[in-house]
């Protein structure tokens, strides 16, 4: 299940407020800070505590 383009236009990274880009692996990746947010059952989970931080290489 993919997210609608209308939803993607209004979503932003909660950490840095940059645009989020969908991936094929059910993640939203921040264009600014690089955090990855999961999409579970078609719902984006935009909690910093659920994200993967590329600087740490793991969930925060």
CATH class: Mainly Beta
| Biggest sheet details | 4 strands, antiparallel
Low-confidence stretches: none
The second-level CATH architecture is Single Sheet
Work out the number of β strands. 6
What gross morphology would you assign? Answer: globular
User: Which class do the helix and strand fractions yield?
Assistant: mainly beta
Quaternary state of the chains: single chain
Count of the separate structural domains: 1
Counting DSSP H or I runs of 4 or more residues, the number of helices is 1
Strand content: 25-35%
The percent of residues in helical segments reads: 10-25%
Instruction: Give the CA-CA distance, first to last residue.
Output: 26 Å
The topology string of helices and strands comes to HEEEEEE
Using the coordinates shown, work out and report the CATH topology.
N-terminal domain of TfIIb
Descriptive terms for the model:
two-stranded antiparallel ribbon, 60 residues, four-stranded antiparallel β-sheet, globular, mainly beta, N-terminal domain of TfIIb, 6 strands, 1 helix
Task: Give a description of the structure.
The protein has 60 residues and is mainly beta. It contains one helix and six strands. The mean pLDDT is 91. The strands form two sheets. The protein has a four-stranded antiparallel beta sheet with strand order 1-2-3-4, with no helix packed on it. It has a two-stranded antiparallel ribbon with strand order 5-6. Helices cover 10% and strands 30% of the residues.
